[in-house]
Write a structure and sequence with these properties.
36% of the residues lie in helices and 19% in strands. The chain has 237 residues and is of the alpha/beta class. The structure holds uridine-5'-diphosphate.
């Protein structure tokens, strides 16, 4: 059995990963699948922080398009990420691994508040740490949160789960000639205008030389495969 490539990582799951094919806001089967993947990955001895998006429920930009002030819409988006973290936390625990949700927005009757030391301590105990409410500030995304938390928690990489198996030169669903990359540098991604993450998230990753590993979450066991260096993925870094 190959040893995992990393000791501590941040996994970024978009909110859409939770609604599966059913079209419901949260597809419980999908949640359980993701939880099983996280538990299998943690069983390798890798410390896992998980940043979950909220796009399956609310995105600030979309809400503000309906006349709500953008910071209010963004707060709704951050609250959506808390709900997603709570459902995943319960599923991870049911699957046999301790988990903790830490929220960047304080809500002490719901879960603990995020701070670096608390997150480090929980990671050190082998718990899956669900990082909720993004950065706690409007105008940011959960991709930015993933890179920020990876940098502040000394993680060695961000594992960005998507619905394609890596970074392509164009949308592979629209352009059959799209080229897939196995590896590229942050600089090459910028020069070729490859949008791996939003520009704030990507700038932060580049400045901190944080590798971003883009992979598809569609296959069961995908996170574990990436951690063993066996999965199909693009490594940016
Ligand atoms: N959000 C925010 N600040 C943050 C992270 C997220 O305001 O630090 C809000 C923002 O409105 C965003 C929503 O939460 O649209 C959900 O996050 P995101 O769009 O990143 O989720 P995903 O697309 O990954 O599901």
């Amino acid at each position: 059995m190959t040893d995992p490539l990393y000791r501590r990582v941040i996994v970024k799951l978009s909110g859409e990963a939770l609604n599966g094919a059913q079209g419901s806001v949260v597809d419980q089967k999908m949640v359980e699948r993701l939880a099983a993947d996280l538990v299998a990955a943690a069983a390798l001895g890798v410390e896992l922080g998980v940043v979950v998006g909220g796009g399956n429920i609310f995105r600030g930009v979309e809400v503000s398009g309906r006349g709500v002030p953008r910071p209010v819409g963004d707060t709704m988006g951050m609250l959506a990420t808390v709900m997603n973290c709570l459902v995943l936390e319960a599923a991870v625990e049911r699957a046999g691994r301790e988990a903790r949700t830490l929220s960047a927005l304080a809500m002490p009757s719901v879960c603990e508040t995020y701070n670096r030391k608390r997150a480090m301590k929980n990671l050190g105990k082998g718990r899956v740490v669900l990082l909720a409410a993004g950065t706690g500030n409007p105008f940011f995304t959960t991709d930015t949160t993933a890179v920020l938390r990876a940098a502040e928690l000394d993680a060695q990489a961000v594992l960005k789960a998507t619905n394609v198996d890596g970074v392509y030169s164009a949308d592979p669903k629209k352009d059959p000639k799209a080229k897939r990359y196995d590896k590229l540098s942050h600089q090459e991604a910028i020069e070729n205008d490859l949008r791996v993450m939003d520009s704030t998230a990507f700038a932060l990753a580049r400045e901190n030389r944080m590798p971003i590993i883009v992979f598809s979450i569609a296959e069961k066991g995908a996170i574990e495969a990436v951690l063993r260096g066996k999965g199909r993925a693009t490594v940016v870094g």
